[in-house]
Amino acid sequence: MIRSAPQALPRLLAVLAAVLVTVPVAPTGAGAEPAAPKLTWAVQPANPDGPDGRRWIERTLDPGQVVTEHLAVRNFSDSAAVFRLQAADGYLTDKGRFNMLPSGEASKDGGTWIAVRSTVTVGANETKVVPFTITVPRDATPGDHPAGIAASVTSTGGTVAIESRVGFRVMLRASGTATAALAIDDLTATYAHSWNPFSPGTIRVRYAVANDGNVWASGKGRVTVSELFGLAGRDTTVDVEELLPGGSRTAQARVGGVWGLGPLRTTVAVTPAALGGGAIAEAGSATVTVTVWAVPWPQLGVVVGLTTAALALRMARRRRRRRLALLLERARQEGRASATTVGDSPS
């Protein structure tokens, strides 16, 4: 499998020119049979003299142009091996890793521009350089046409054949007007309360970002939440990981410190950054807004509780006043009755 570091790990693997893979040359025998030797190899961009330090190949070419490039197959094992060489269209997986189409799937784009010999035999602990040609169709559309090239072996275990591939990207760009553009779709925002009425909640944002341009791109963005009809707001920055032309990926973000007092206007804005170098004629940003309503239940609970307590206290005070008034009235009546009795007694 062809893999590269995702954009979130900025060039962390810059020191790795190739991926090493270890597979059995033959299935391991049962019982007391010795274990099959292991095959370890690497594939790297090269010049005619050997690996040249590039992580992958990037070329900007004119329609109809033909160039020759080289790859180096390095066999780190103690026995010779025959490797199958192949090129195919490249794509990014859901996790943002670069890969190339499976052997059984036909290429339709940049993979068809590459011609390489079908096999190469590499001796034990040997490196062999193999040339390959890149032919750009005369009707090639401007922009990027990603591909990959790999050396593979197939091991068989029982009835299952397993193909192991090691290779690298071949990022091909046809000359012409290059545009970097991102689009946002399916934006949703959900408010999550903090059930502590004295703490704010969080807006959770989910959206799909797509590369609508014709070049490989990443980007930067910002998620902004406005509440109290614009009187208060919070925001956070987001990164758009690399996307190939026509590719898309689901992204998520969280914005804290939001009280959720009524309508919450949530805006996502992204700006593309073209990758791979070269001049970009246009850069298309995207902005999408969605509004959700949030009811401040914890704060309302506090208000209801305080109101209930105040009413209860007021009613209790009224009952005490009535009871006190009744006691005073009874005392007066008893006092008057006592005074009348004393006045009517014989002298």
Model description:
- The protein is mainly beta and 347 residues long.
- The chain folds into two domains: 21-174, Immunoglobulin-like, CATH 2.60.40; 179-298, Immunoglobulin-like (Sandwich), CATH 2.60.40.
- Helix content is 14%, strand content 51%.
- The protein is built from one helix and 20 strands.
- It has one helix spanning 297-344, and strands spanning 21-24, 38-47, 50-51, 57-61, 66-75, 81-92, 98-100, 114-116, 119-122, 126-135, 143-157, 160-174, 179-192, 201-211, 217-227, 232-243, 248-258, 262-274, 282-284, 286-294.
- Strands 1, 2, 3, 5, 8 and 10 form a six-stranded antiparallel sheet that branches. Strands 4, 6, 7, 9, 11 and 12 form a six-stranded mixed sheet that branches.
- A hairpin with a 2-residue loop joins strand 2 and strand 3 (50-51).
- It is elongated.
- Assigned CATH class of the largest domain: Mainly Beta
Number of helices: 1
User: pLDDT under 50 segments (min length 5)?
Assistant: 1-35
**Alpha-carbon distance between the termini?**
126 Å
Largest sheet: 6 strands, antiparallel
Which structural class do you get from the secondary structure elements? Answer: mainly beta
- Could you tell me the radius of gyration in angstroms? 37 Å
Number of domains: 2
Tell me, rounded to a whole number, the average pLDDT: 84
